[in-house]
Structure formats: structure tokens, C-alpha cells
């Protein structure tokens, strides 16, 4: 009997219907979000000039990029929670935030700038960025792993990496309201470095806790 047929047979024989993975993931992330928010408010807080910054399109772009990452990762993660699923045909979703940030960099390059490119790339908060995003991600990563654990991923390490992308995207959205470096060059450099740390942790943990 093939694996997929076996899983269907076992599911049919089970009188208890498990909650959908998407629902469990949403509930787990909602439960973890206040913890990340509390850490954010105690350690960082929203930047003092946020009302003025909202008129800067590059400030707003940060949220578009991070939310696009989180939403794309959620879609791919839910797909990978099925035992027969693979990245084939779904991995392109993860290129959406890459395309958005590339468009942002191109737009910034076409505008007159007061600061040199390297100054905008390095920014003022690089150390805070690569520390804060992973820290804020921890509760969300736990929630994402709990949610995806209700599925049956065939590749637990890859599913764990998606949990890392989900949590890093949401944490980066929170951090973006504190970060005073709005240049797409800064976002394209330091946010991915911080995200990669969380993705690596998610893959390592997921390889163990997402096995079925």
C-alpha cells in the first residue's frame, strides 16, 4: 500500500477529526504574538518619529516586504505540512518579497540621495537589527512549529525552515516600526542576515520536532 493511501486509510479509521493545520497555526501565532510584542515594547518600542516616517514611502515599503515574506512563508509552510508535498511549484512564492525589495532598491537608486550608498547600506542599527529580529522571532517560531506539527510534513527540516521564515517575517514587521534605517539597501542587507539565523534554527529544530 502506498504511503498516501495508508495515511488516508488511517485517517478514515480515526473517529476524531484533527483541527486543520491552518487553524492551529493561526491560533499558535496569535498566542505567541503578545509575547513578542511585550519583548518589543520593553526592549525597543516604536520609533519616536513614526508619524512623520509614515509619509516616507521607503518606511512603508519595509512593512510590505516583511509581510510579503511572512504571508508567502505561511502559504508554503501549510503546503509542506502535507505528507506528499514538496517545494516544486510553490518555491516561487518566496521570491515575491525579493522582487519587492529589488524594485525598492531600483526606485531609491533613481532618486537624488543626500547620503552615500555605503552609508545607507550600513545604516545606524545593523547590530540591533541582527539581534532584535531573532529575539522577537523566538515566541513566534515556537508557535509556528506547534502549528505545523499538527500536519505531517515529509521534509521536517524544510517545514521547520518555513516556520523560521514565518516567524522572522512577523518579527521583522514588528521591528520595522522601531528601525530608523528606511533605505531598501539596509533592509536588503541586514534583515536577510537576521532572518537566516531564524531559518537555520527553525530547520534544526524542525528536523526533530516535525517528524511523524
Give a brief rundown of this model.
With 212 residues, the chain is mainly α. It contains 9 helices and no strands.
- The fraction of residues assigned to DSSP E strands is under 5%
Shape: globular
Number of strands: 0
Identify low-pLDDT runs. 10-17
Tell me about this structure.
- About 4% of the residues have low confidence.
- This protein is mostly helical and 212 residues long.
- Helix 2 packs antiparallel against helix 7, helix 4 packs antiparallel against helix 5 and helix 8 runs antiparallel to helix 9.
- The protein is globular.
- The protein has nine helices and no strands.
Keyword list:
single chain, 212 residues, mainly alpha, globular
Give me the secondary-structure topology.
Blueprint: H1 3-13, H2 21-43, H3 50-53, H4 57-80, H5 96-109, H6 117-122, H7 126-149, H8 156-176, H9 184-209
